[in-house]
Amino acid sequence: MKVKSYAKINISLDVINKREDGYHNLRMIMHSVELSDDIEININGSKSISVSTNLHYLPDNKKNHAYRAAELFFEHTGIENPGIHIDIFKRIPVSAGLAGGSSDAAAVLRALNVMFSASLSLPELAKIGLLVGADVPYCIHGGTMLAEGVGEILTPLKNMPKAPIVLSKPPIGLSTPKVFSEISAEKIKLHPDTDGIIKSLDAGDLNGICKRMFNVLEPAAQSVLSKSGNGNAVEELKEVFRNHNACGTLMSGSGPTVFGIFEDIKDAKCAYNAAKRITRDTFLTTT
Ligand code: C5P
Question: What is the pTM of this model?
Answer without folding.
Answer: 0.96
